[in-house]
Amino acid sequence: MQKTEFLLLLDELLELEPGTVKGSETLESLEGWNSLAIISLMALMDERFGVALQPRRIAACTTVADLVALLDDKIA
Amino acid sequence: MINPMDLAGRTVLVTGASSGIGRETARLISQLGARVVLVGRNEERLAETLRSLDGEGHRAELFDLSSADEIPRWLKSVTASSGPLHGLVHSAGIIKLCPLRVSTSQTVEDVMGINVKAAIGLARGFCQKNVRASSGSIVFLSSVTGLTGQAGLSAYAASKGAIIALTKALAVELAGERIRVNCVAPGLVTTEMGQGQLSLLTPDQGAALKSMHLLGFGSAHDVACAIAFLLAETARWITGTTLVVDGGYTAH
Q1: Domains of chain B
Q2: Nearest CA-CA partner of B37 in B69, B77, B93, B6
Q3: Chain B residues near any Cβ of chain A (below 8 Å)
Q4: Please, which residues have CB within 8 angstroms of residue B201's CB and are 6 or more apart in sequence?
Q5: What are the residue numbers of the active site of B?
Q6: B99 to chain A, minimum CA–CA distance in Å?
Q7: What confidence tens digit (pLDDT) does each residue in B1-51 have?
Q8: Is there a contact between B153 and B159 (Cβ–Cβ < 8 Å)?
């Protein structure tokens, strides 16, 4: 998957206009980022891209860039 | 000395017998004297359960419960060789942690298919002449999520709430046929499925869930004991009820 695809997925998940999340934000600054959003992100990533994310690793992220780094080898 | 939960001479069919609560229930009721018909989709794991049973006369049947309309005919053929059933435990089930915003009709279909449609198909099959003995006991698996709210589990909760309503409706419909219908509502049990659920939670969420279970998380055996009680003569005057087995989860 492309990094932009992932950012658009975050927009969708948080009900933001497409293109809102740029990649450098802190997660705390994103309205709607909470524990349910974490679970939703896991469900969506699994369903759309077949990627299984670990909740404890997502919970340890503080920025969008951290999330992208988690996807590491899966992201182009 | 007497054993009020003696199941000698009874034949009981258990779905979901290849793991978790189903497997543990099969083991326990075999120790209480029942002959068990194990149902599951994984041949190897079913054989493993079969080997762990006490006593003789048990059998394993491979069947995919998602074809719910096939169940009555299939049960006829199973009981043609096993003999009539005194009990039925529907322990096969699926759970999907899926917040509302990412839930689709497919999520609902998947969960309802095994948890509810198969339950109705099994009850239909069980009631047929020659499939059941002169009296019978059906036990379904509900969940505390069918009784109290839990975030991220709407489709699963709806299916488990449906089991409670189904239990009551069938208890009324089948009382005249001397079939009792009850369900158990477990809290989080540390089976493979329970551990799988826990692994989907952040450490904070997991700790919060654990603290809600006043006696800690349960084991498959804790639930199997309640199921055996409902199958046996100990529950001869009990039908249409939901037996909560949750370590105090719903007490507060």
Answers
A1: 11-244 (3.40.50.720)
A2: B77
A3: 97-99, 101-102, 151-152, 199-205
A4: A39, A55, B209
A5: 156
A6: 6
A7: 999 999 999 999 999 999 999 999 999 999 999 999 999 999 999 999 999
A8: no
Report yes or no: B53 and B18 within 8 Å, Cβ to Cβ: no
ipTM score assigned to the predicted complex: 0.75
Right CATH number for A3-74 from 1.10.1200.10, 3.90.1150.10, 1.20.810.10, 3.40.1280.10? 1.10.1200.10
Which chain B residue is nearest to residue A43, measuring alpha carbons?
Answer: B98
Tell me the pTM.
0.92
Residue from the list B101, B201, B203 with its beta carbon closest to the beta carbon of A40: B101
The beta strands (E) that lie in B151-210 are given as: 179-186
What are the structure tokens assigned to A10, written together?
Answer: 């975050």
Q: Do B98 and A43 touch (CB under 8 A)?
A: yes
pLDDT tens by residue, A35-74: 889 999 998 888 888 888 888 889 899 999 999 988 877 7
Residues recorded for chain B: 252
